[in-house]
C-alpha cells in the first residue's frame, strides 16, 4: 500500500488551462454588444438646420412654392420669394388645409405650363414628425421632389 501512495505523490500536476469559462464569458459579452449596438445610433443629438450649400439654379418656366412650419406646428405657404411668416399670420393653416392649397397650386401651375419646385422651411424647434407630415401631405398633393431649406452656419 505504501508503494501505491508514493506513486501517486510522484505524479506531476496537470498544467492545462480550462478555457471553457472564458468562452462562456466572451459569448455573453458578444450577446450584450449585439443587443446594445443598435440602440447607440438613436442616442446621438444632432442640430441639422445649419448647412452650407450653394443656391439652386432657377429657370423661367419654374415657380417656387415654399412651405414654412413654425414652432407651434402651423403651416404657411408662399408662391415666389421666401416666406415671411411674421407678415402672414392670417394665412396660418393646418396640415390638411395646406395639402389642399398645394394641390390647387400644383394643378394651376401644371395647367399654365409651369413646373413647381417645392421647398420646406422647418423651424429648428419643430419635431421631425411635423416635417415628415408635411412631406407626406405634399406627396398626397402630387409633389414628387421636395427640398429642405437650411441656414448657412
UniProtKB/TrEMBL annotation:
It is found in: Cell inner membrane; Cell membrane. Pfam families: ExbD (PF02472). The keyword Transmembrane applies. Keywords: Cell cycle, Cell division, Cell inner membrane, Cell membrane, Membrane, Transmembrane, Transmembrane helix. It is a single-pass membrane protein. One of its GO terms (biological process) is protein transport. Belongs to the ExbD/TolR family. PANTHER family: EXBD MEMBRANE COMPONENT OF PMF-DRIVEN MACROMOLECULE IMPORT SYSTEM, TOL-PAL SYSTEM PROTEIN TOLR. The Tol-Pal system is composed of five core proteins: the inner membrane proteins TolA, TolQ and TolR, the periplasmic protein TolB and the outer membrane protein Pal. They form a network linking the inner and outer membranes and the peptidoglycan layer. NCBIfam families: tolR (TIGR02801). This is Tol-Pal system protein TolR. It comes from Pseudomonas fluorescens R124. The gene is tolR.
Amino acid at each position: 500500500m505504501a508503494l501505491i501512495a508514493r506513486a501517486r505523490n510522484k505524479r506531476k500536476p496537470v498544467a492545462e488551462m480550462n478555457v471553457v469559462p472564458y468562452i462562456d464569458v466572451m459569448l455573453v459579452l458578444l450577446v450584450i454588444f449585439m443587443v446594445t449596438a443598435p440602440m447607440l445610433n438613436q442616442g446621438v443629438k444632432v442640430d441639422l438646420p445649419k448647412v452650407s450649400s450653394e443656391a439652386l439654379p432657377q429657370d423661367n418656366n419654374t415657380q417656387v412654392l415654399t412651405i414654412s412650419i413654425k414652432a407651434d406646428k402651423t403651416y404657411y405657404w408662399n408662391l415666389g420669394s421666401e416666406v415671411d411668416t411674421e407678415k402672414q399670420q392670417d394665412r396660418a393653416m393646418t396640415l390638411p388645409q395646406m395639402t389642399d392649397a398645394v394641390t390647387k397650386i400644383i394643378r394651376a401651375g401644371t395647367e399654365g405650363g409651369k413646373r413647381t419646385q417645392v421647398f420646406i422651411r422647418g423651424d429648428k424647434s419643430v419635431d421631425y414628425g411635423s416635417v415628415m407630415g408635411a412631406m407626406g401631405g405634399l406627396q398626397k398633393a402630387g409633389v414628387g421632389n421636395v427640398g429642405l431649406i437650411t441656414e448657412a452656419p
